[in-house]
Amino acid sequence: MNTILLLLPPLINVLVTGIFAFVILRQYISRRRSYQLYWSISLLMAFVATLAYMAMLMVGPTSEPGTYFFRLYYALGGTIMPSWLGMGSIALISKPRVSRAFVGFLLLLSLIAGTFVLDATIDMARLSHIAGTPGTGTLQPGPWLVMTILLNTLGVVAVAGVALLSGWKMLRKQARMGEIRTSNILWANIFIFTGAILNAAAGTLARFLGLDSIFWLIMALGWIVLFLGVLLASRRSRHSHNVATAQTTHTDPVKA
User: Fold this and answer.
1) How far apart are CA 9 and CA 133, in angstroms?
2) Residue 182, burial from CB neighbour count under 10 angstroms (0-12, 13-18, 19+)
3) Residue 12 contacts by C-beta under 8 Å, 6 or more apart in sequence?
4) How far apart are CA 16 and CA 5, in angstroms?
5) Of 137 and 182, which is predicted with more confidence?
6) For the segment 34-70, what is each residue's pLDDT rounded down to a tens digit?
7) Has residue 253 got a pLDDT over 70?
8) What are phi and psi of 130, to 5 degrees?
9) What is the pTM of this model?
10) What CA–CA distance (Å, rounded) separates 130 from 135?
11) b/e for 32-71, b at 16 or more Cβ within 10 A?
């Protein structure tokens, strides 16, 4: 019964990230926007990382398979994933050539960071008490820590920065865009910004409140808020596309 309760919060994250990844990946297949591809990659990383965490608990954290699952969880979810979420935001506002340059650099950093995590020394005593917590302090300090801080910082700055920049630009535009109110777009950016901050600060908030066990619940809340923001932004994108199509159809006569 205790094990089921410990698995419930990560399971919520599996469901949320899985649904989120499916929706964004379907949008990418339909529209072929690079930012949707990078967001899908980051969400799939979060999905696999959370599954690895659950698998670790089921086989035993300190068992040999358990340590492998922990490293996979930490490499994907704790270290690499936030930077790819940020990559999606960068691709949203940058030219394809610039995005490709960033992707090449990020691939190199991700490979280095993943190698460092896989090679880091594990504090087995801490690992034995990881259930329900993010696992902070389980890896002994080393090069992986520098890469984790770097990639997490880049990811959060990119997601939050692009959201704030987009919101600021909308404040300078007209009160309405077609039939979509500017306030709806502003709310989308507010949700994306808030979700990114919640995810980045989940571990800190859990420790600040003295309840490491709520880490996964804060993460789930962050993903849900971020998801709502992306859905609101997608509504605006679909509307803009439909308006442009209608205008083209109205302007250009249909040839028999």
Assistant:
1) 10
2) middle
3) 216, 217, 220
4) 18
5) 137
6) 888 998 899 899 999 999 999 999 999 999 999 999 9
7) no
8) -80, -20
9) 0.81
10) 5
11) ebbbbbbbbbbbbbbbbbbbbbbbbbeeebbeeebbebbb
- Read off the amino acid at residue 100: R
Q: What is the mean pLDDT of residues 238-242?
A: 47
pLDDT reported for residue 200: 78
Give the model confidence (pLDDT) of 72-122 as tens digits. Answer: 999 999 899 989 988 988 888 888 888 999 999 999 999 999 999 999 999
Q: At what angle do helices 182-200 and 215-251 cross, to 10 degrees?
A: 150
Tokens 């770097």 label which residue? 150
Give the other-Cβ count within 10 Å of 19's Cβ: 15
Note whether 47 and 77 are within 8 A (CB). no
142: DSSP letter? S
Q: ∠ CA(53), CA(54), CA(56), 5° rounding?
A: 65
Looking at residue 33, its amino acid is R
Q: What pLDDT, on the 0 to 100 scale, is given for residue 111? A: 96
Cα 140 to Cα 163: distance, rounded to the nearest angstrom: 34
Q: Which helix (H) or strand (E) holds 42?
A: helix 34-59
Residue type, 166: S
DSSP state of 122: B
Chain mean pLDDT for the chain: 81
CA pair distance 253, 134, nearest whole angstrom: 60
Q: How many residues does the chain have?
A: 256
**2-237, which class in CATH?**
mainly alpha
Closest CA to 70 of 81, 55, 82: 55
CB atoms closer than 10 angstroms to residue 29: 11
Q: Which two tokens stand for residue 179?
A: 């039939």
